[in-house]
Amino acid sequence: MDNPIKNITTDFEHIILLITEARNRVYTKANAELVMLYFNVGQIVSEKVANGNWGDRTVNDLADYIIKRQPFLKGFNRRGLYRMKQFYEMYSDEGIVSALLTQLQGIDNKDDKFVTTLLTQISWTNHLLILTKTKTSEEKLFYLYQSIKEKLSTRELERQLNSATFERTMLGNKFGGVITKHLPEGIFKDPYVFEFLALPEIHSEDDLQQALIKNLQNFILEMGKGFTYMGSEYRLQVGNKDYYTDLLFYHRDLQCMVLFELKIEEFQPEFLGKLNFYLEALDRDVKRPFENPSIGVLLCKGKDVEVVEYALARNLSPALIADYETKLIDKKLLAEKLNQLSEIFYRNEE
After folding, report:
1. What pTM does this model have?
2. Where does the pLDDT of residue 109 fall: very low under 50, low under 70, confident under 90, or very high at 90 and above?
3. Domain spans of the chain?
4. Residue 136 C-alpha from the chain's centroid
């Protein structure tokens, strides 16, 4: 017999779902209109200034005129108008558009309608963050691509910007032969930043593991989209012995398990032997037939790049040796590190 109270609750929840979906559609439509408005205004200001018809004073006069005619309208002051101009100029550049289309669609031809449709997929707040907190076009493209592909909220995007995800992703992926082995690009970082743990400078591996588990939501936010937590101290039985891994995840897009092993000291080559042992056990005894080989990530408190390169040279398992930091890193230091790895990479290519 049907439960009338349960049926009513189900009906109520259905109505709440309809309200939520309608609200989301209204927000999406309003955001698209707002972003396109700013793009179009930016185009007018940019072209007038470029042609010499308008100067800085004219832009000021425009801001004053808009405030007089639309006193409750926000964002159209002098600063806002120049942001719109910058926004238009950034995404009307042929090279930027072509690079973005290639990343998202695998094509390199320009399609204005499609590009402007792309730009409306993220909020104006996110666009402002990208415009104001990045310097190079490559960096802007990276965060725009991430925002569209991963549907980043403002909070998620701001954290990526503050923790220098662009530089760390370049370190973790661009020079794959140096610090990674058999890994897809754009998924893993180096170094990882765990400023949310509030760990003391001196801590144990158990302290690190327990802190990451307690702050699991922030840990997954740092790792990126697609990770699902499977557990800590995951038991693997090999022969007559039990072995316990540190942190085990599943990645939906890669369709494989990802094992994070934690070390509070600098990388040592022998760490790889244990990691490969765990990966082999996972693939033989836990992995399902349709899943891909497991990936291992060794999180160490520092590493010598040359030692890592030697250690990974004959390693067959998909693996990453990454640093972890308990404080936000200065972007300048990351840029210097990126340059150092670049020199090693190109020296090895000669």
Report:
1. 0.69
2. very low
3. 4-162, 165-349
4. 17
